[in-house]
Amino acid sequence: MPKTPDYFHGKTIVITGAASGIGRATAEIFAREGANVVCADVNEPGVKETAAAVNTRGSQALALKVDVTRRSQVDDMIERAVGAFGRVHFLFNSAGAAIRRAKFLEIDDDLIEKTFNLNVKGTLYGMQAVLPHMVENKFGVIVNVGSMAHRRGGPGSSIHYAAAKGAVVTMTMGVAREFATAGIRALSISPGPVKTPFQDAAATSPELYKKFLEDVPMGRFGEPEEIGELVLFMCSDACTFMTADTVYVNGGGGWR
After folding, report:
1. Per-residue pLDDT at 256
2. Residue 103 near residue 50, CB atoms below 8 Å
3. Catalytic: which of 7, 125, 161, 209?
4. Roughly how many angstroms between the first and final C-alpha of the chain, as a whole number?
5. What is the 3-state secondary structure (H, E, C) of 32-73?
6. Whether residue 161 lies in the annotated active site
7. What pTM did the predictor assign?
8. What pLDDT is recorded for position 159?
9. How many CB atoms lie within 10 A of CB 156?
């Protein structure tokens, strides 16, 4: 939570991957705090549902169909956000996926390209689009989604994804340090297994679900709202000395 009451009231956050899961949960949490929320996702019906939920909470929403692997669409997203609300204070790059599970020798050119396009380029484009605006205003917080996979390497099912998320975490650290004197903070969150459509989209088998669960001492998956509340804290005035870090949220698991 912020130190200052109504800290987020009237401020604007852009959220990619806002149609479901962590992105949607975060959109509703920021709406609860009175923020304007730009909801972006390639899933147009889903992102409209998220925007409607934001409006129901009394906040202003802008729903945009955006493919984050297309630089021009991401640039347009930021331009439209600024046009609608005047400023962008926060960017949450939530869009990402493993595309599909694969053993290392099964990773082909198509899978590695799609994985890096979505997770790495999608994050890169968002930061490059918003940073000039944030620098001009001498304020901004960027939060990117990493993964516990980058600590473990993803053996047996997701080395391609782990490598992409490792790049996201490293890129976040570099951006944070390069823009630290410009009033910008950049952080990443590396979750363990969270209950989201991500698992289904990546074709996670029941056996893999069980393996993930057995590795969490708390004995459960995380909830999207638990990640969203952390994003809120990271963006708040209670967290102003924190930058360049990734925060691991995993119920105690994922380290071996």
Report:
1. 47
2. no
3. 161
4. 32
5. HCCCEEEEEECCHHHHHHHHHHHHHCCCCEEEEECCCCCHHH
6. yes
7. 0.95
8. 97
9. 12
User: Is 41:17 a contact under the CB 8 Å cutoff?
Assistant: yes
Kindly state the tokens that stand for 159.
């080395």
Per-residue pLDDT of 109-162, as tens digits, reads 999 999 999 999 999 999 999 999 999 999 999 999 999 999 999 999 999 999
Span 97-115, pLDDT tens digits? 999 999 999 999 999 999 9
Q: Say which amino acid occupies 152.
A: R
Q: How far apart are CA 71 and CA 239, in angstroms?
A: 30
pLDDT of residue 113: 98
DSSP-derived 3-state class of residue 33: coil
C-alpha–C-alpha distance, residues 172 and 186, integer Å: 6
Residue 61 is given by DSSP the state E
Question: What does the block give as tokens for 52?
Answer: 């409607």
Query: Where are the strands (E) in 99-215, listed by range?
Result: 140-145, 184-191
Q: How many residues does the chain have?
A: 256
Beta strands at 36-41 and 61-65: parallel, antiparallel or unpaired = parallel
pLDDT at residue number 200: 53
Residue with tokens 């996201």: 168
Half-sphere exposure of 2 (CA within 13 A, CB side): 17
Distant-in-sequence, close-in-space partners of 136: CB < 8 Å, separation ≥ 6? none
Measured distance CA(149)–CA(189) in Å, rounded: 12
